Amino acid sequence: MTTPASGTAAELRTRIENDTARVGVIGLGYVGLPLAHALHRGGLAVIGFDVDRSKIESIEAKENYLRHLGDSMIEDLASSDRFEATDDFGRLGECDVILIAVPTPLGHHNEPDLSYIRITAEHIGRSLRPGQLIVLESTTYPRTTRDEMLPVIMANAPEASRDLECGRDFFVAFSPEREDPGRKDHSTSTIPKLVGGLDPEATSLAALVYRKGIAEVVEVSSAEVAESAKLLENIFRAVNIAMVNEMKVVLDRMDIDIWEVVRAASTKPFGFMPFFPGPGLGGHCIPIDPFYLTWKAKEVGCSTRFIELAGQVNTAMPEYVIDRVANALNDHAKPVKGSRILVMGLAYKPDVDDTRESPSFELIKILEGRGAEVEYSDPHIPETRRVRRHDLKMKSIELTPENIADFDCVLISTNHEAFDYGMVADHARLVVDTRDAMRAHHEAMGDRLVLA
Ligand SMILES: NC(=O)c1ccc[n+]([C@@H]2O[C@H](COP(=O)([O-])OP(=O)(O)OC[C@H]3O[C@@H](n4cnc5c(N)ncnc54)[C@H](O)[C@@H]3O)[C@@H](O)[C@H]2O)c1
Q1: Domain limits at 416?
Q2: N or C: which end of the chain has fewer CB within 10 A?
Q3: How far is the CA of 167 from the centre of ligand 1 (A)?
Q4: Is ligand 1 within 6 A of the CB of residue 138?
Q5: Is the CB of 346 under 6 A from ligand 1?
């Protein structure tokens, strides 16, 4: 049962419906930028907010800073009189709808770092006024929207807004992002969007906003359901990837090809979903988000054994891969120490330039630790950027027949489409493939190829 719409809600609803509502998107990164674009394309006026001045300058100069999104996205936004980007958070008061897509990383001890959400909530609080809808999109543990974000907004509200009531004068919801950078069959506007408010009015208003730019919006009964659903989605992936990685280790020992096994099992038309092994988990979500639940679970006296086991299996993968490299080199009468090794792919997944949590960094560090000389090649990442645990300060080398032949071993960590695998097969002395990228060349390579 829904409560009757307050006058404020009815006004906001009208503004959203007739495209006079102004939307603020806070955080113009992998999630925020395409979201701003989708809602702008749906007819709404959007202000993008970011603390990173270089992003705002890039937009103003029509320079694309997220290449996988294509150049037209920034071009469309920057050329429109319904979009502007700013780092002036005082302008949040101009926005009827505020969507938050700031980072939610882990701290040094794998604890949730909500500092970005809190700082953002302080800014929103200072500009709070009646008739605003605030939606958190950043992945986080259940009850963050209600127990962590809302109180900070209220504590920072100006004197005139102190008495505003959430659910009557302004509205708060959670809507998880399901962005999958690099995916070609879906975009922000085609991925169904979950929406759960702190009250039914907030759910319905947030759904109305998203329907402007997103084909399918699914309303759930609370912000907590929406927060938990996002964690379930990511934990599901982390656990299944760990399971298949564990199976890979067992099958390797028995000389059975795990990729062929997964493809064989995938022919079952129900009750199975393929997950493929790899050199470890990467990206901003899967290696991080599950630990948000682990941390929160302790508060209610529970442990999350599946999540922790999956974490152990997945984080052990880079060491496992390097053992395979060492054995492969040994079979070619070479020690790791002093060997020249080329890591193909630095991004955490194919065809993107995102290196966050990429296992390639671990692979390089472990190899260097064992005395190898390591270089990398990645057409999407000409030089390394600092990531959470590493600052490698390396430059990509070009993949040429001469370069490939110059290495004792080529280690495929990311299967970018742009790589010429035929050239690798023709010129490499030894290839260790963690992504099944060399499938077409198994026969030609013989014992120069090892799966890991
Ligand atoms: N990248 C993905 O594929 C993906 C998918 C689903 C969910 N998410 C979640 O979405 C959230 C955002 O992730 P992302 O990948 O877009 O991160 P990102 O780092 O690409 O973008 C975040 C942006 O927020 C900006 N920012 C940081 N602090 C800010 C502040 N106080 N005020 C305004 N802007 C600020 C940063 O400069 C950056 O531009 C995270 O919670 C993440 O877990 C990401």
Answers
A1: 237-451
A2: N
A3: 26
A4: yes
A5: no
Residues 77 and 212 in one domain: yes
Distance CA 141, CA 124 (A): 21
Whether 3 shows a pLDDT value over 70: the answer reads no
Element (H or E) spanning 85, and its range? strand 83-86
Q: Are residues 100 and 242 in the same domain?
A: no
- Residue 230 inside a domain? The answer is no
Give CA–CA dist 75/280, Å, rounded.
36
* Residue 50 CA to ligand 1 centre (angstroms): 10
User: Does the CB atom of residue 56 touch ligand 1 within 6 A?
Assistant: no
Centre of ligand 1 to C-alpha 285, Å, is 11
User: Which domain-ending residue is among 221, 247, 277?
Assistant: 221
- Whether 40 and 153 map to the same domain: the answer is yes
- Asked if 305 contacts 257 with a C-beta cutoff of 8 angstroms, the reply is no
Residue whose CA is at the smallest distance from ligand 1 atom 44: 31
Total domains in the chain come to 2
Residue at 229 is within a domain: no
Ligand 1 atom showing the smallest separation from residue 55 Cα: 39
Ligand 1 near 292 CB (within 6 A): no
Question: Cβ distance 309 to 242 under 8 Å?
Answer: yes
Q: What is the pTM of this model?
A: 0.93
Task: Confirm whether 350 is domain-assigned.
Answer: yes
Beta-bridge partners for 396: 376
Q: Residue 28 CA: which ligand 1 atom is closest? A: 39
What is the per-residue pLDDT across 161-202, written as a single tens digit (0 to 9) for each?
Answer: 999 999 999 999 999 999 888 888 998 999 999 999 999 999
pLDDT tens-digit map of 319-343:
999 999 999 999 999 999 999 999 9
List, by residue number, the catalytic residues.
Answer: 285
